[in-house]
C-alpha cells in the first residue's frame, strides 16, 4: 500500500486515570509521529471534554454506557458513522464497534474475567460481552505482557496466533529529581522525610491490607489515598521522594509503577506473581504477596542496606531502557501493516 494507512483509534480512556489512560495517551502521541499513518481519533465522555487540540478528533459528549449499548449490544451502527472510513480500527477496553476495517484491540489484563471478586458486576458484564465480540471479530489482539497473553488464552477462545505481545513504556520521560525539588514537593504535601510508597486502587488487588501491616515500622504513603492522584508533572517527584516502591500486588497485567520507579532512581520491591517479574527482571527484590513476613523482611533489607539499594537502583536504570513508547509504537505499526497488506 503506497498511500498512508488510515487508523481509527478509540482514545476515550484518556478521560479516566490509570494505566489504560497512560497507555492510550502515550501510544497515541508516538503513532501520530509516524509519517505513513493518518490517525483519526474517537473520543466519548459526558463529563470530561477532550482538552487541547488534536487533528482528526471526533469527539462526542455522550456517556460511555450509551456507546456500550450501541456498539456492544445493538450493533446496528458502525464506527465509520462516527469517524469516517478507516483501514484499521484500534479499540480500547470498553467497546467493540462493528467496522469494515481490520480490527485491533489492546488487552491490559483480564481482571473482570479471571478475578471477578475484584470487579463490579456491571463491569464484569460489559467485559464478558465485549470479549465474545473480540473472539468472533478481532483480527489481532495486542497484549501488554506475556502474562496477559497467557491469561487471555486461559479465559477466552482467541487463537494464539491472533495475540501479539507489545510492552509498554514508562508513564513519562522520568528522571531522578534534585534535592531542592524533592524538598519543596515534600513540604507541599506534608510528606515525611523517609517513607515507603505504595500504589492505591479499588478492591483487594493492590494488597494494601498486608502492605500496611508490613510497614508498621515505617511511614507509608499510598498514592490515591494518603494524597490525591497526581498529574504527570508531579508524579516523578512523588517517586523521587520515596525511599522505596513497595508494589506487592496480588495481580498485575503489566506494572507501570515499576518502570516509573526505575526511571526515577528508587529501589523496587514487587511480587513474584503475574507480570511483575516479567517487567522488573533482575532489577527488583521479590516477595510472596500473601506473606506479611516476607514483605517486611525485604522492606527492612532495602531500607537499611545501602550497598543493596545502590545495586538495585543501578539495575533499575539499565532495565527501564528496555521499554519505550517509541518501540511500542513501531511494533504496533507493524501489526497494522501486516493486517492491511495481508
What labels describe this entry?
alpha/beta, Rossmann fold, 2 domains, 7-stranded parallel sheet, 5-stranded parallel sheet, globular
Question: Can you describe this structure?
Answer:
There is one protein chain. By secondary structure, the chain is of the alpha/beta class. The chain has two domains: 183 residues, Glycogen Phosphorylase B (Rossmann fold, 3-Layer(aba) Sandwich); 142 residues, 3-Layer(aba) Sandwich (Rossmann fold). Helix content is 43%, strand content 16%. The strands form two sheets. The chain has a seven-stranded parallel β-sheet with strand order 3-2-1-4-5-6-7. Helix 6 links the parallel strand 6 and strand 7. Helix 1 packs across helix 14 and helix 8 crosses helix 12. The radius of gyration is 21 Å and the shape is globular. The model has no long low-confidence stretch (mean pLDDT 96).
